[in-house]
Amino acid sequence: MSAISRDEVANLARLARIAMSDAELDHLAGEMDVILGAVARVQEVASKDVLATSHPLDVSNVVREDLVVASLSPTEALSGAPASEDQRFKVPQILGEE
Amino acid sequence: MSVRNSASQMAAALANKEISSVELTNQHYEQIQAVDKDVNAFLYLDKEGAIAQATEIDKKRSAGEKLAPLAGVPLALKDVLTQKGVPTTCGSKILQGWRPPYDSTVVSKLKSAGVIILGKTNMDEFAMGSSTENSAYGPTHNPWDLSRIPGGSGGGSSAALASFEAPLAIGTDTGGSIRQPAAVTGTVGVKPTYGGVSRYGLVAFSSSLDQAGPCARTVLDTALLHQVIAGFDPKDSTSINQAVPDVVAAAKKQDVKGMKIGIVKQLSGNGYQKGVENKFNEAVSELVKLGAEIVEVSCPNFEYALAAYYLIAPSECSSNLARFDSIRFGLRVGDDGTKGAEEVMNLTRQAGFGREVKRRIILGTYALSSGYYDAYYGSAQKVRTLIKQDFESAFEKCDVLVSPTAPTTAFKIGEKANDPLAMYLNDIATIPVNMAGIGGMSLPCGLAEEDNLPVGFQIMSPAMKDDRMYLVGGALEAALLSKWGKPILDFAPKLAGSK
């Protein structure tokens, strides 16, 4: 039995906001099945009494003084934008017509 | 002075005014002009910026100003670090033409030290890969044999060093992307302790694993560059606020008498090429001759490191790469006035990301989704704890750990391109270091007898004890150099047109 179906991969692509052709989905579904089969072995040693490590450093709540420092000008901040207008990022429509 | 000299030799010649930085920089551009059509190490050359920088250094030197040790020496920068006004692509189409409006901290430090940045080097897209074949701009070729891979993801940086296009380079290492390219090209690369070098301006792939580091052709040159880029940075909240260990002094010391060196039992045997193991064992014998004590250590959970890595790194990448949304920078596809933002985003990410990046985003999205989180991402995080514990108990018995850097020498371009799992196995010996956030170095230890290609020797040190890698690396390098009679890169076939 496969670990993941083509439909599940299509749903993941939708969640990840990546359009995929049928050919891409067919290919990826096969690969994902093989990769998941291989990485699932982490479960062999991940028993309940082992704590999780999310990060190599034991740091939390790193804060700094709230000071005004030099920052990017609006022109600099917008310099890489595909489209901009009136010192703002210009985006395609975000609401439907109806 | 030739492009084949070390960075330290170049720095000395500059200091003695035997050569100017402009002349030295131009020599390197000539070498790039001659060989890079075959090697393809560079994605972008900033000749104008570099010559301006070199002119400035020469002026300061003539005026008698005190300059930093590497002032005026050229460097190749991996295209994953931002440099103000210079295109930064991360090897991806989605960032084609993007010119960042700010310098990464690594670049700021290089500039303050007077290091000349020649240009940006090729890499696997967003640093995902072990061969540089995943670059959207074509693969880089290994100077030892142009039909082979230069390692990855930092194959551009390693190939630039091995083809004498630059004496220094910057890499980044998430699962081995500095060390494995160094191993397969006969160069030196160091992944510093996590938090040792600022990640500000390093385009994130897997934030808890990514670390920028120095690459060069000798251990001392690597140490000199390490000293330039390391140190606390308030702009990176995971930067360690401690003094940088004196890696330069360690590289020069060349004394390992009485040091305890641990061989990791799990990082050998099945899957490791015979010639790789032979050269590794010969290097260990050299260390014994120098007075080091060898201890065998067992790290049983390393067996699970690769599986855990290929859950953690994709999980973090699926989140980090969400920023490529076609709104704020980079590519936008399909915005013809009839489509909504989400559709434009979908089309942009389809067109802008390559296969490996998509594969990892999907894998990470799966591993983080509700219902699968505990079984995949959660379990991988537990394995991370077990690997850290393995290192902790190993370092109770020894000062450093050693292993081969990569299981094989450089393979042929295309050989593993359609088998992601086979490709992932390249990182089997380098990944544990990233999982625990400790330091790792690769330096050349000889040529494998089967194929006459370079083999890498990995040295691992506890967190913030990076000087130990340089101590052992410097001593081993000197011993091997006297055994070989010349630097390892002198055994490589000469590239057409090369100096």
In short:
The complex is a heterodimer of chains A (98) and B (499). Chain A has 98 residues and is mainly α. Chain A has helices at 6-15, 22-39, 74-77, and strands at residues 84-85, 88-89.
Description:
The complex is a heterodimer of chains A (98) and B (499). With 98 residues, chain A is mostly helical. In chain A, 33% of the residues lie in helices and 4% in strands. Chain A has three helices and two strands; from the N terminus they run H-H-H-E-E. Chain A has a two-stranded antiparallel sheet. The longest helix of chain A has 18 residues, at 22-39. The model of chain A has no long low-confidence stretch (mean pLDDT 91). The relative contact order of chain B is 0.14. With 499 residues, chain B is α/β, with parallel strands linked by helices. Chain B has one domain: Amidase signature (AS) domain (Amidase signature (AS) enzymes, Alpha-Beta Complex), CATH 3.90.1300. Chain B has helices at 7-15, 21-39, 47-62, 105-112, 155-162, 179-185, 219-229, 247-253, 274-289, 305-320, 341-352, 355-368, 374-397, 420-424, 431-436, 466-484, and strands at residues 42-45, 74-78, 116-121, 168-172, 188-191, 212-216, 260-264, 293-297, 400-404, 439-447, 454-461. In chain B, helix 10 packs across helix 13. The model of chain B has no long low-confidence stretch (mean pLDDT 97). Chain B is globular. Chain B has an eleven-stranded mixed β-sheet with strand order 1-3-2-4-6-5-10-11-9-7-8, sandwiched between helices. At the A-B interface, helix 1 and helix 2 of A face helix 10, helix 11, helix 12 and helix 13 of B.
